Amino acid sequence: MTTIIPASSFTALHIRLYEPQRLLKPWVQCIWTLEGCSHSKLQKTEKLYPDAGSSLTFKYEPDGIKAVFFHNKHTLYHSLSGCERRISIRFTPSGAHFLLGLEVQDLAGQDHCLAELSPLLWRQSLEQLVNRLAMTDFALHMKMIQTWLIQCLAKSESPDLRTGGIIHEIQNLASTPYDIAGKIGFTRRTLERKLKREVGVTPNQIVNFSRIHKARQLLLRTEMSLADVALHCGYLDQAHFNNAFRKATFESPGYYRHRKLSQISNPPF
């Protein structure tokens, strides 16, 4: 599987996180690199959580560089090795649609070779990019990949900037998705179609991702009781919270808090 955003335990592999160039910030959350060492035997496995975004990872394999796209809707386990070389772009929820023209709802759950996906608008330029990467130093590659993405943006249809605002409001959990849609003149069905096409998930899935994300933060950064965390994240009661959290993360809120705080106290180096 393609990594989303590296978890804290991956720090031991010397992964580096970067902000995207200014023009890409509406569409790219972050970029991370793993330069890799052929002699390294270190391997780390972590649990990674969906946020409605997707990833494009350039994998440096013995038979060449491969651009792999991944969009997920579920929590997954992922392992990284210190001998691997990777550059990964983590898109915002609508980033892959507007930068690459992808209909991500049909691509969820598995890796896809980007060169085999439609539309073909950027296929030739992708092949040219990969060829240039193979002939230049790794230190220059992140800048080259971002330049390519900016070129893709220039060729794409005019992005609907309302999508980012809608998603941001939904993620803030301030009101229901359909209240938000009503404020901007969308019907319930229009909102659902728009997000399915551009983001690949439903409004309620974004709400669920956001609740779990907020709960995970509160469990680690506060001493709130589980009942209070449930209330702050919009769950009906602690039982509802426990069931939703376990379904999304494969563990109870209490165990998650214990496990993560133990990692912080005993960092995996």
From TrEMBL:
Gene3D superfamilies cross-referenced by the UniProt entry: Homeodomain-like
InterPro entries (UniProt xref): DUF6597, Homeodomain-like_sf, HTH_AraC
Record's keyword annotation contains Thylakoid: no
SUPFAM superfamilies: Homeodomain-like
Domain HTH araC/xylS-type: 179-259
Keywords associated with the record: DNA-binding, Transcription, Transcription regulation
GO terms of molecular function: DNA-binding transcription factor activity; sequence-specific DNA binding
Keyword set includes Transcription regulation: yes
Protein name, per record: Helix-turn-helix transcriptional regulator
Native source species: Alteromonas pelagimontana
Higher taxonomy: Bacteria, Pseudomonadati, Pseudomonadota, Gammaproteobacteria, Alteromonadales
